[in-house]
Design brief:
The protein is mainly β. It has no helices and eleven strands. Strands 2, 4, 5, 6, 9, 10 and 11 form a seven-stranded mixed β-sheet that branches.
Length: about 120
């Protein structure tokens, strides 16, 4: 069974950095597309960044462009999100997701990022 396990969240001060990781377990292939999403209390889930299998096609939400960097290690089946210049409005639960059969059909349990 495919499982996504995130790690790397935490509490930081504004201006700080974090690196999130997401390991894809139980899948021998490489997901076509992987992405990071976030959801803050009382708000809808929003897409943060996505990267395709070739790792050279990335997309970012306008709110994180220039501050966050998505990357993936296909050999390790691991997705990363480098968060720099964090702002209080980046506080949210961050989820990774993967496209295995179609759409973002597998999701991790989430990792909390809190910026104060």
């Amino acid at each position: 069974q495919v499982q996504l396990v995130e790690s790397g969240g935490g509490s930081v001060q504004a201006g700080g950095s974090l690196r999130l990781s997401c390991v894809v377990a139980g899948y021998t292939g490489s997901p076509l597309c992987m992405g990071w999403f976030r959801q803050a209390p009382g708000k809808e889930r929003e897409g943060v960044a996505t990267v395709y299998a070739g790792a050279d096609i990335t997309n970012y939400a306008d709110s994180v462009k220039g501050r966050f960097t998505i990357s993936r290690d296909n050999a390790q089946n691991t997705l990363y999100l480098q968060l720099n210049s964090l702002k209080t409005e980046d506080t949210a639960m961050y989820y990774c997701a993967a496209t295995v059969h179609g759409g973002f059909d597998y999701w991790g349990q989430g990792t909390q990022v809190t910026v104060s």
